[in-house]
Amino acid sequence: MHVLLATSELNPYSKTGGLADMVSALSRALAGSNLQVSVITPLYRGMAQAHPAIEATSWRLAIPLGDGLVEGRFHCQKLSPNLTFWFVEQAGFFDRPGIYNEGNRDYADNAARFIFLSRAALILARHLPNPPTVLHCHDWQTGLIPILARHAQWHSGWARPPQTVFTIHNLAFQGSFPAASWGLTGLPSDWLHLESALHFERVNFLKAGLTQAQAITTVSPNYAREILTPEYGCGLDGLLLKRYNDLSGILNGVDYEEWNSASDPALPSGFSAQDLSGKAMCKAALQRELGLPEDPEVPLFANISRLTDQKGSALILQTIRALIDAGEFLQFALLGSGERALENAFADLAKRFPNQVAARIGFDPALSHRIEAGADFYLMPSRFEPCGLNQLYSLRYGAIPIVRATGGLQDSVIDPRDNAAQATGIKFTTYSAAALQKAVLKALALWKEPAWLQHIRHNGMTADFSWEKQAAEYVALYESVCRE
To answer: Closest by alpha carbon to 253, among 25, 7, 15?
Structure first.
């Protein structure tokens, strides 16, 4: 079986969030299970220079978009006999400072940019010497691929297009554009209707994927259930209910080659569940790096995130401020960026309490590893969370996660109330600062019980969320759609 994955970002080449990590790790795990795997993604600014193994090919593209013709070229990197990454170059679309936006403002031509990517993916699928049997599309940026493939089969003589699987990484981001953008697709105007991509008189790329793909997945079993409800369905719960039999949730995994506390090059010292001495050294080094007093006795809480309402950033801000004002003995480290008001508020909190709060505004992958390794507890009070990856990294790095019981957080963290013997973290239910504060107080009580703390930490560090296990579920799904 040959699987082609289509994605708008791919770690380590391009990344804004968990999508890049997931597709990269999944592709490698699938290739390791003896599938033939290809991935297609844009060639963004600086990628070829940063990754010299990416080679330009002689394979050039000329793709109609509306009344125009947009040219491009494929680049390629073969990582192993079973794994090939393809990069589509189009300087006008992808040679930009950002992937989707600049200064928190989306690029005005995002519809055209990702229609181009989708059509390039189909050209690749149709003309590779070994055509893929499955085309796995990820998030709204590739949502038009299934309907474009269907049109090519019916009207362009493509006798056997691949079966399509569409994965929702975050239903809140749908790729909604004015109806006039449909003209860029090359599809007939009468193909834009409520059973394809039309949603509130606009073209909705994500809806197109949901209506046309043979199978739909999302990144945790619990989120697959949640999105069938009005609270989490983002206006598409009715459609998802119609496709209930085609929907499944497969929890994301962790790339334990990248997230390995024993051998992580970003850390000042390695450690494991069997030997935690290196974690104490990581905590001390992190406190020094962030300008916090070096003190092994103070519990260090952390958060690495986009600063948004979805991630519960305001709840963290209110909780840490309230607990420090109340005289609680703790430290807090933040790494993230997002809404300007939240960035400023965390920076102000760090200035007000320099011995207890450190805030680093920005994106720093190496520092994120050091924070996970140095923290004692990790805060993740998301309003909703399709899967979440940081709680999985935290488990392996011995930072006990404190999470709201939603989406993949519910699937991946075990609270002592649910199973004391297998507990790995602390969960709460209500999305409020009061509920988060109560959970943090539980963590502070846990801090004073070293044996119980060590029991929960050891459970988390030895939990298995490897991609090899999760990839087997995708292989079974691919086989099922190919039998249809």
So the answer is: 25
